[in-house]
Amino acid sequence: MSGEWLQRVRDELAQTWAITVKDMKVYYLRPGMIMFGVLMPFFLFFSFSVRREIAAAQGVARLLALTIFFTAAAAGPFIIPLERRLGTYDRLLAAPISLPTLLLGKTAVGALFALAVSFIALIIGVTVFGVTIAAPWLLIAGLILGAYSFAALGLIFGSIPTRNPGDVQMPSTLLRWGLLFISGVFIPLEEMAPMARAVAYLSPLTYAQDLMNHAVLGAGLLSPRLDIVILFLSGILFLMPSIWLHRRSRVLGY
Fold first, then answer.
1. Model confidence pLDDT, tens digit, residues 32-78
2. Is 144 within 8 Å of 99 (Cβ atoms)?
3. Are 180 and 65 in contact (CB under 8 A)?
4. Predicted pLDDT of residue 164
5. CA–CA distance from 13 to each of 103, 105, 161, 242 (Å)?
6. Backbone dihedral region of 87: left (phi > 0), alpha (psi from -120 to 50 degrees) or beta?
7. What is the DSSP letter of 54?
8. Is the pLDDT of residue 144 over 80?
9. Which residues lie closer than 8 Å to 73 by C-beta, 6 or more apart?
10. pTM for this structure?
11. Which of 114, 26, 131, 109 is nearest to 64 (CA)?
12. What SS3 state is found at 251?
């Protein structure tokens, strides 16, 4: 019985990886992914950081949180509606794979894309600006959990029943901007009024930024264990509406 269960897990992981590799080859260099996943976080960072007196380490911590957030969440709203319009998504649904396996594969596409872009930002920060990492294991945990959680967030919008990526890009972008501006990325939590800080705790980006502060600066306002738990649980929570929306899409014929 345990052997059959292990073989089933191996098969599911192999199917997940096959979906991920296929999407990486097809979509990583598409203009929509480059625009919303690569250029936007860097534009936002420089727009709010240039001519402000912030230390290099603080800037790297902010840039890492921004790239993880925007890049990971950019894949889902772009890939799935486009595949529905092209008809390739129907082939995946007809294949003998479970819906959670399919969604995990799509989540991994955004997460790996975010890890690659944030790694470039990290290399620039370390080699060009001489930033040192205070807690490497917190950095690894923050990047992986943040990428997974925010990719699952983007998958919610990709699961909306539609074949047009433009129908989900606008609400997806509006939500991400809202979560960005209430978080502690541009205004540190320590400098917020109590009411604003309470609102900031509603954004998962707040916990990713606090974890990056612990990892790069060596200090944050919240406990790093709390940041890790929140990011892990939010990633699971974000998958729930995606499963419901996919089942709803099948009923509606998408």
1. 778 878 888 888 888 777 777 788 888 899 999 999 998 888 888 88
2. no
3. no
4. 81
5. 12, 9, 26, 19
6. left
7. -
8. yes
9. 110, 150, 151, 153, 154, 172, 176
10. 0.87
11. 114
12. helix
